[in-house]
Design brief:
CATH superfamily of the largest domain: Metal-dependent hydrolases
Radius of gyration: 22 Å
CATH class of the largest domain: Alpha Beta
Number of domains: 2
Strand content: 15-25%
Bound molecules: zinc ion
CATH architecture of the largest domain: Alpha-Beta Barrel
CATH topology of the largest domain: TIM Barrel
Order of helices and strands: EEEEEEHHEHEHEHEHEHEHHHHHEHEE
Structural class: alpha/beta
Shape: globular
Length: about 425
């Protein structure tokens, strides 16, 4: 009798606690994690640190890698939006070039250890043939073996009111074409609450979740996060909801932050602060005691809100220097949001999975009680803290137990002997 044997071993990996382990993979999932044995044959991980793969919960693949072609001398959010719209109007972008950039942006993320991505993609009546969406869908198809990608239809404003009819039509088309979630920017609309209601109606109709750009401003009077939480609770919205940015929450008094955080927790809304791009775009108008513009991570987590950290824009008018590396995001969360390195790591790995509606990947000795994908980052670092600090290029990335990306570097010192 023959039996299909799909069991494979990744050997000689090192867990964050320092122990050496071998990992058994069956059908793309973790079958067991055993103490390392020199007798076991398999793919040698060379004693490098093995951690759950990283996630990017908030990308803009359609805009990525355009910093030279779309400069933003003002450096703020409205400067970036105006620069982008002007570039679009002068015909800077097209299906093929956008697909190529989006594909390259995915590959950069994967090389750094990312296997789960949620990207926002511009959708509106001015893009009548849905070039942005089709480009990112083509990039998703081309990289299916590397990463799982969720697409959010980032709606042009307005979505509410009579002027929003064309955009509402474009949203429904996008959901039929292949967008997975409804997005948009209530804080950019005259009727933010109306925008939330329109977004919710379309999401309910399509049976999908929402991920909105919420309150990307330091104006303390702008608090559509509260409107969103109340609407979601009021109607018992049955699909996952994410609030990205939530910048203005960071400038509220702490008691207000706590009150709103508990409403957000009660509504089951996940929050995605975006340290790199928030730090770049926010606070320019306040050179003294410059605010950081990052949603209050600890207040949100203490209230029971699921939080994930993202990078947002990568080398475009919204952030000219994004590095496509969640270790950059985690390091900024340590420095600018006072997170401990271990917490920052959680927020760019399993924290992302949680907000994206995916199961966690845990690397502990034994056989996992629940099925877990064999999605790992193997990195040449002594600890999680050192990995965040040094962000070594030397990484190996496994998706479903298959090695999908390898980066190795050479360093040489020409010391005098
Ligand atoms: Zn964004």
């Amino acid at each position: 009798m023959t039996q299909a044997n799909t069991s494979r071993w990744l050997t000689n990996g090192r867990l964050a606690n320092g122990s050496t382990v071998d990992i058994e993979v069956v059908d793309g999932a973790i079958a067991s994690v055993m103490p390392g044995s020199p007798e076991r044959r398999g793919t040698d991980l060379d004693g490098w640190l093995v951690v759950p793969s990283l996630g990017e919960p908030h990308a803009h693949l359609d805009k990525a890698l355009t910093a030279e072609r779309v400069p933003n001398p003002a450096g703020d959010l409205m400067g970036a939006i105006h620069a982008w719209v002007a570039a679009e109007q002068r015909g800077e972008f097209g299906l093929d070039e956008m697909t190529a950039r989006a594909t390259l942006a995915v590959r950069k993320l994967v090389a750094n250890g990312v296997t789960n991505i949620r990207t926002h993609v511009n959708v509106g009546e001015s893009d009548a043939t849905h070039v942005h969406l089709r480009a990112v869908m083509a990039a998703r198809a081309a990289t299916r073996h590397l990463a799982d990608i969720q697409i959010v239809a980032l709606m042009h404003s307005p979505l509410a009111g009579s002027d929003g009819a064309g955009n509402r039509r474009a949203l429904r088309e996008a959901l039929q074409l292949g967008a997975d979630l409804v997005g948009g920017c209530p804080h950019l609309e005259d009727d933010g609450d109306g925008m939330i209601r329109e977004a919710m109606a379309a999401a309910l109709e399509a049976g999908v979740g929402m991920d909105l750009h919420v309150d990307e401003t330091l104006d303390p009077k702008m608090l559509t996060l509260r409107d969103l939480a109340r609407r979601v609770s009021e109607i018992g919205f049955p699909h996952p909801v994410t609030a990205s940015h939530c910048v203005s929450l960071s400038v509220q008094p702490v008691d207000v932050q706590r009150r709103i955080a508990s409403e957000v927790a009660a509504a089951g809304i996940g929050v995605v602060p975006l340290p790199p791009t928030n730090l770049f775009l926010q606070g320019r108008e306040q050179p003294s005691s410059m605010p950081r513009g990052i949603a209050p991570i600890d207040v949100l987590r203490s209230a029971g809100v699921e939080v994930a950290l993202g990078g947002d824009n990568v080398q475009d008018p919204f952030n000219p220097v994004g590095r496509s590396d969640p270790f950059e995001t985690a390091a900024l969360a340590v420095m600018a949001s006072h997170q401990l390195p271990g917490d920052a790591f959680h927020l760019v790995s399993n924290g992302v999975r949680k907000v994206l509606g995916l199961g966690a990947v845990e690397l502990t000795l034994g056989r996992p009680a629940n099925p877990m994908p064999a999605d790992f980052l193997v990195v040449n670092a002594a600890s999680v803290r050192e990995a965040i600090a040094d962000a070594p290029a030397d990484r190996r990335v496994f998706k479903g137990g298959v090695e999908v990306a390898v980066t190795t570097t050479t360093r040489r010192f020409n010391d005098r002997s």
